[in-house]
């Protein structure tokens, strides 16, 4: 039962990691300065920027060049890509450990501890860029030198990332504890 719980937590964390990596809502335009009439909502993600006009029309544009990206965005992309690659590997190791575990406790071998460590590492790889982005958004929001139209709020992808990071860490703890 404990291994199955860890597998479910890890699977949900893996899906959340992949979703957070692909979502364009990392940074969302903020409504500040008492301006109630807003015609555009801007979403900034790891791969593209999107503009929603009056909630009716959505235009998204991928970033033109990888070389033109700011270094922090390149680092965020790299960490999330590493997490997106490691999460399915951890899930496969956990699945392999559970299927071998049906043959007896000695058949578990190194799969369950490896899956636990991989889930823990993946959780850390997700939480670092998500928390880094969240801290930068909060810092810029309260900075008086940043103009109102350039202020951003926390987007849905950050909340998905925090949730999936927590699920991955919980799955890793379950698998490491069961060894």
UniProtKB/TrEMBL annotation:
Membrane-traversing stretches: 75-98, 110-137, 157-176
Describe its membrane topology. Answer: Multi-pass membrane protein
The answer on whether this UniProt entry bears the keyword Signal reads yes
In the UniProt record, does the keyword Flavoprotein occur?
no
What GO cellular-component annotations does this UniProt entry give? bicellular tight junction; plasma membrane
Which locations, inside or outside the cell, does it occupy? Cell junction, Tight junction; Cell membrane
Task: Please give one Gene Ontology molecular function term for this protein.
Answer: structural molecule activity
Query: According to the UniProt entry, where is the signal peptide?
Result: 1-19
UniProtKB keywords: Cell junction, Cell membrane, Membrane, Signal, Tight junction, Transmembrane, Transmembrane helix
Main subcellular location of this protein, as a coarse class: other
What is the role of the protein in this entry?
Claudins function as major constituents of the tight junction complexes that regulate the permeability of epithelia.
Family listed: Belongs to the claudin family.
Q: What is this protein called?
A: Claudin
Q: Which organism is it from?
A: Brachypodius melanocephalos
